[in-house]
Amino acid sequence: MSTPSFDLAALAALVARFAGRRVAVLGDCMLDRYLWGRVERISPEAPVPVVEVERESSTLGGAGNVAANLAALGAAPLLLGVVGEDDDGRRLREAFAARGLDLGGVVTDATRPTTVKTRIVAHAQQVVRADRESRADLSGAALARLLEIVERELPGCEGLVVSDYGKGVIHPGTLAPALGAALRAGCAVSVDPKESHIDAYRGVSILTPNQHEAGWVQGRRVTDEASLLEVGWGLQQRLDAAAVLVTRGAGGMSLFERGGRYTHLPTVAREVYDVTGAGDTVVSVVALALAAGADFPAACLLANHAAGIVIREVGTASCTREQLLGSLAGAKS
Q1: SS3 at position 227
Q2: What is the rounded distance in angstroms from the CA atom of residue 197 to the CA atom of residue 179?
Q3: What does the domain layout of the chain look like in residue ranges?
Q4: Whole-angstrom distance, CA of residue 287 vs CA of residue 319
Q5: Fewer CB near the last or first residue (10 Å), C or N of the chain?
Q6: Mean per-residue pLDDT for 70-77?
Q7: What is the DSSP track for 176-190?
Q8: Is it the case that residue 313 has pLDDT exceeding 70?
Q9: Among residues 260, 278, 156, 257, which one has the least CA distance to residue 205?
Q10: Nearest CA-CA partner of 156 in 122, 118, 182, 194
């Protein structure tokens, strides 16, 4: 097991190179809606808490949150995805535009609803989540339009993120053409995977599953160092990926690279309020760092610090370059 050297000046120079990097994000666009309130009684109709809603908010989820993370770090992301022809789709487009995201790759599909996750939160704790979605594979005119954009735009990008939430955009019919276009363009491909599509990611640059996802696809629950090593190396070899980064929550991150190097990154999080969207932050920072010239350990070190920042907030959040540099400096001091 290796431990990456920590050179603050080199890492700061790497973060400075984030500015303006063109990184495409292909995946499931979602709207995360939050109803915030408090609980003071149990319903007389059923043994469930009654949440008295005090306010409502919404933010980007899925591929949109990955793109928002990239934008917050100074990159120029291109979002490639689908929204429905409905009010939520219009809200999502408005939210994309408000964050300065390029909407040229967002296709409207009248045959499916915009994916919306509604979370009811009381006293900073999620009570329940309600999803409105279609998980059918994207097809027809919307698929053809999306693939046309992928083929046209990827040659001008420096990296590709696949953000797979199992909502229909990512399937063999989109993955094979996108991965082929990325290979021809010389783009590193970073994948936040869905277990059901795992073998379609063969040959990518890096996957960033959490330990539960990695264990599930390998048929082995991660419970200790021995099972972690078996799962991590097994997944890397199964997919012939250049690297696999297994995120482990409080256990930090473990990086398995083709060639046999294993690197462990202890967690830097001091407080954990909500891990929602942390995977989006990890894959976005890894992809952007690779586009800026980082090796895998340095990219994952930066992602580890960024994740430690966003999980201190309730709901999906983004990390800025200033926050990332502050976290790095704090770890050095």
Answers
A1: helix
A2: 14
A3: 8-30+61-116+134-332
A4: 14
A5: C
A6: 95
A7: HHHHHHHHHHT-EEE
A8: no
A9: 257
A10: 182
Whether 92 contacts 114, CB under 8 Å: yes
Q: If one looks up domain 8-30+61-116+134-332 in CATH, what number appears?
A: 3.40.1190.20
Give the tens place of pLDDT for each residue, 262-307. 999 988 755 544 455 588 999 999 999 999 999 999 999 999 999 8
Query: What's the chain's average pLDDT?
Result: 91
From start to end of the chain, where are the E strands? 23-27, 29-42, 49-62, 78-84, 106-109, 115-122, 125-132, 159-163, 188-192, 206-207, 243-247, 253-257, 262-265
CB neighbours of 82 closer than 8 A, spacing ≥ 6? Answer: 29, 106, 107, 108, 109, 112, 138, 142, 146, 168, 169
Residue 56's nearest CA partner among 36, 75, 74, 71 is 36
Band of the pLDDT at 311, cuts 50, 70, 90?
Answer: low
Using alpha carbons, list the distances in angstroms from residue 309 to 151, 296, 312, 313.
35, 20, 6, 8
Active site residues: 280
Round to whole Å and give the CA distance between 234 and 239.
Answer: 9
- Token pair of 248 as six digits: 């482990």
Q: What is the pLDDT of residues 117-168, one digit of tens each?
A: 999 999 988 999 999 999 999 999 999 999 999 999 999 999 999 999 999 9
Q: Which two tokens stand for residue 281?
A: 């932050």
Interstrand relation of 243-247 and 253-257 (parallel, antiparallel or unpaired) = antiparallel
In which region does residue 311 sit, left (phi positive, over 0), alpha (psi from -120 to 50) or beta (all else)?
alpha
Contacts with 272 (C-beta within 8 Å, 6 or more apart), sequence order: 250, 311, 312
